[in-house]
Amino acid sequence: MRETDVTCGNEDRGAGQGAPSERPPRVPGAASGGAAWLLRPEGGLDRPDHPVFMGARQVGRERPGAAVIVDLSRVREITAEGVRGLLRCARTLSEAGAPLLLAGAADDVARLLRTVLVDGTIRMYATVEAAVAACGGTAAGADASARDTSARDTSARDTSALDTSARDTSARDTSALDTCTAGGDRTAVPEVIRLRRETVDLRAKLRSHPLIAQAQGVLRERYRLPAGQTAFTLLKRSSQTHNVKLRTLAAALLRVERPAPGSRLWFPERIRGEAPALPFLPDVRPGEVHRSTVVKRVLDRAMEVVGSDMGDLQLADPAGLRMARHHGFSSEFIDFFSHVGEGETACAMAAARARPVVSDIATDRVFSDTAREVILATGSRTAHSIPMTGASREVVGVFSVHVPKVRHSPTDAETAILLDLATRAGLWLEWHERTVVLDALEDLHQRALAAARGAAPRRPSLGSPPGGYPSES
């Protein structure tokens, strides 16, 4: 296995010194950034402790932030254990702030990886040059042996990133679903599914871990807290006190403008608005109900109206849509669509357009091949995705109802009920984000101030908080 340091950074920074092999030529005009390390395994990737993974982890330890490119052009076999090694390696590198990129895979290896890695959790490129360019450098940054990969016939493969959503279904040989070994022993379909789930689990961890870690860092810096564990404890306590998910609170901390220096209150002039009515929850007080209760009832009501037992509700997230509620779907569906970015699905399209979208699952081009396969496996043939919009006209979420009938259309009366439901839910969800979540931020501010001065936390006078909050002992 050869290791090459491919500079992708500013020349003045000296990126790439101290590489495992000789120092490569610098990349003229590369964008600012770190270095990219190129690893070239040969033969087969058949175990999680393969030397290439050990080398990649070493780069993560010694060169935090440096991208790792694995050139697979000389790999003829990859097994399920090899894929697991890739997933674990990607997780280790992500914790060091380093991306893992794969390049130059032979067709059968690439086909297997696209099947298992589902949606680009680990980025794949047709050539090493394309991977280097994605790091901010150019193909000239690789050594001569790296450039040899450009001689490969790329007529059937795009030289840019291999976008699984853009490839024709015919290119996805169904034999990839019957095996979990490219060029080697065959493994059953459940093994592919398990590996897909591991990939999705990795994707979830890669999303949540940096967000919460970044929020802890902000708290430590802003309030000069003694340790990272203190910051996490404060986040957790405020989250539990106000029944706001930890990830939601962390995202709000990073998004909302910081308190004025020396201010005891984060939002001193804020007036808590009255909660919008919830006619679909007649037995509760809108200002005292928890968000999970509202989300559950919205989805249940939407499925009742359409007459379906399959549906999901996703809430707006800084990076797209995040699954908040679901019913009637397999664990693979839930894992795969736990988070949706722009342009991946009908619900993402509904959010982007701020209007309902009806999709024929089998033919609608908005779905990637793998996404289509996962949805069709549930029995769904038509999806009705309806955005929920707040008073600000911003989309706060989308609920989707799936039906087994092709080209299913709701009646005018059903459509009117669904649109009213979306409007009512959107108003309340936006109120919750701008009221209850800000209450939690205010509470966090007080706890952090108290922790910084070593005193017991004192709650500010906020008026009457929602009655559903647990009392603080």
UniProtKB/TrEMBL annotation:
Q: Tell me any Pfam family this protein matches.
A: ANTAR
**Source organism superkingdom:** Bacteria
Q: Which CDD domains match?
A: STAS_anti-anti-sigma_factors (cd07043)
PROSITE patterns named among the record's database cross-references: ANTAR, STAS
Region (Disordered), start-end ranges: 1-34, 143-182, 452-473
Per UniProt, the keywords (alphabetical) are: Transcription, Transcription regulation
Domain ANTAR residues, every copy: 192-254
* Keyword Nuclease listed: no
Q: Where is the composition biased (Basic and acidic residues)?
A: 1-14, 145-156
* UniProt GO MF annotations: RNA binding
Name this protein carries in UniProt: ANTAR domain protein
Query: Whose protein is this, by species?
Result: Streptomyces iranensis
